[in-house]
Amino acid sequence: LLTLCLTGCLLAPGCQGAQGRFAYKLLHDLFANYSSALRPVEDTDRALNVTLQVTLSQIIDMDERNQVLTSYLWVRQAWLDAHLTWDKDAYDGIDSIRIPSSYVWRPDIILYNNADDRFGGSMETNVVLRSDGHITWDSPAITKSSCKVNVAYFPFDGQRCRLTFGSWTYNGNQIDLRNRMDTGDLTDFVENVEWEVLGMPATRNVITYGCCSEPYPDVTYTLLLRRRASFYIFNLLLPCIMVSFLAPLGFYLPSDSGEKVSLGVTVLLALTVFQLLVAESMPPSESVPLIGKYYIATMTMITASTALTIFIMNIHHCGPGARPVPPWAKRLILHHMARLCCVYEVGESCKSPQQVLGRPVGREEPGGPGESPGEGEVGMEAGGCHRDRCLCHHDGLLRNVNYIATCFRRHRATQRRTGEWKKVAKVMDRFFMWVFFLMVFLMSVLVVGKAA
């Protein structure tokens, strides 16, 4: 047993050297009269079967604006070369060799929808040549393919990108191209942070182009992608929703603060910045993305709220020369809408609004705005006092007192009209605040529901 082991150890290097010499002799014999320019078939009238298998390794980039998908693929092609066969027993049992791919004939399989300006092909890797003539060529390739991008539901969209492989010069009567499996291989796929791969089905098509009468087969892999929307939700959608809820709060600001219009304009500018960020990454097409529609609707709503704010501020600052509030406005705004929006002054509540709003303007209470202090006492004393001793019978004094009382009544009436218009403005502020809050909420629900 020991002698056999020693003999095996001594003969092993010699055997390896002999096999190397046989491999060199095999390579010399195979390519002595071989040409890599001709299709390797015994009968030129028969088509050569070529099988194709694509393995998706990584999605490098998806350029939505230019509609280009950059991916890293492993492309396997297999065919039978009838001129490269040998008897393995005649070459010390060598069953397969690995040689540069430039030594043998290769099918000119290319990516039809290539979008690379350099048109770089696969890497020059080795091929595996077996004794029965079967050749397997595995080559990695970084491809840029054109992909029709539909951003109607961005950022909740999905894309279907096609990778079409076929021969550029050989028709279907010369090369019969077929897919090895019904789907692309995704076992070695590296997960992408932005896109989720749902599948990669493969289909074989036979197309007759307008330039030629012969059929041309191709294998099309359809890459089914779905965008991971978390990044866009937290960086584009949620900030927009939060900014949108600031717009109705402009109605809650006091009109005397001077910041109502400034808040609306600031919110409008913020949404414009978000809209520009979305427009920079989207292709210039007629299809407006979902988030873009939401931005436009929100900007329109904020523009309307700013215009209404200007109108309401004009009502609030109408001044002493304003006309009295019309009766219909008193009933509708100061009574019903005030109770609905819970707008009340000091001393009243939503359940018991002030009753003075419903009576006529000229009607006054004793000691109210229409009666000056001390005027009643002057009248009583004028009726029962002595003419010579009472100062009430002096005409100049009476005219001055009447003038002061008239000015006081006018001032109180002006204050009352101004207060009523201010309350009208306050009720309209509260009413539109709740209306716009409801609109923002409904728009947000519609966007999320349509995306789902």
TrEMBL record:
It holds the Pfam family Neur_chan_memb. This is ACH10 protein. PROSITE patterns: NEUROTR_ION_CHANNEL. The gene is Chrna10. Residues 24-228 form the Neurotransmitter-gated ion-channel ligand-binding domain. It comes from the Eukaryota. InterPro entries: Neur_chan_lig-bd (IPR006202), Neur_chan_lig-bd_sf (IPR036734), Neur_channel (IPR006201), Neuro-gated_channel_TM_sf (IPR036719), Neuro_actylchol_rec (IPR038050), Neurotrans-gated_channel_TM (IPR006029), Neurotransmitter_ion_chnl_CS (IPR018000), Nicotinic_acetylcholine_rcpt (IPR002394). GO terms for molecular function: acetylcholine-gated monoatomic cation-selective channel activity; calcium channel activity; transmembrane signaling receptor activity. NCBIfam families: LIC. It comes from Eurystomus gularis. SUPFAM superfamilies: Neurotransmitter-gated ion-channel transmembrane pore (SSF90112), Nicotinic receptor ligand binding domain-like (SSF63712). It catalyses: K(+)(in) = K(+)(out); Ca(2+)(in) = Ca(2+)(out); Mg(2+)(in) = Mg(2+)(out); Na(+)(in) = Na(+)(out).
